[in-house]
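pinned: reference chain
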Amino acid sequence: MSILPVNLSNVTVEKRGKRIIGPVSMELPGGGLTIVLGPNGAGKTTLLRTMHGIERISGGDVRWQVSRREAELHQSFVFQTPIIMRRSVLDNIAYPLHLRGHPRKASRQQAEDWAQRIGLGDALERPATVLSGGERQKLALARALIIKPDIVFLDEPTANLDGSAMRDIEQLVQDAHESGMTIVLATHNLGQARRLGKEVIYIQDGVIQERSSAKAFFAGPEDAGAAAFINGDIV
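pinned: its structure tokens
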């Protein structure tokens, strides 16, 4: 049974008396590749963290089709600055399988397979902390995908990477989507949104201003702020 769709009902997040997002009401079905687009500080990261369950909400409700505990086991999150443990490349990638009680030998074999896919097959026993920025992000993505989650949240996964590393990450994302995973990717990179997106959620000032297919959005958004944003204006 899939954990999707996930439903947000009148969700708000406030910090130090300031509203960061909301109210947000939406349903996210399975199978999509959704781009959460908007300027810096719009609330993209907070929206992803809220759906994933790592942001304390101030009001409203987030509901999956299963219990919260079950939902946690079948989703992954990749941060803009990846979390790298002081372990080998192999053990970093295998870690989510260890947490779920998978046999050690099988976990390490799957991790080795993923390391080969992301170009780190020759670095299995290297400390992951010495990897470059692009390598770290690919490791984080492999670690997120190894559990074959129903949904993966990606927060600006290529924000600090060069073109080559960006292409590699985007290909991994595309492959994951084509394998059946639901992808939610936050970015302010319009080129990336055009290349990957099937659906766009445009958020500004913590409020979802527009939601449509990527084709319709880039053909001409209805929201004035969204139109200004894709035109390159300051919003």
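why pinned: The mean pLDDT is 96. DSSP finds nine helices and nine strands in the chain.
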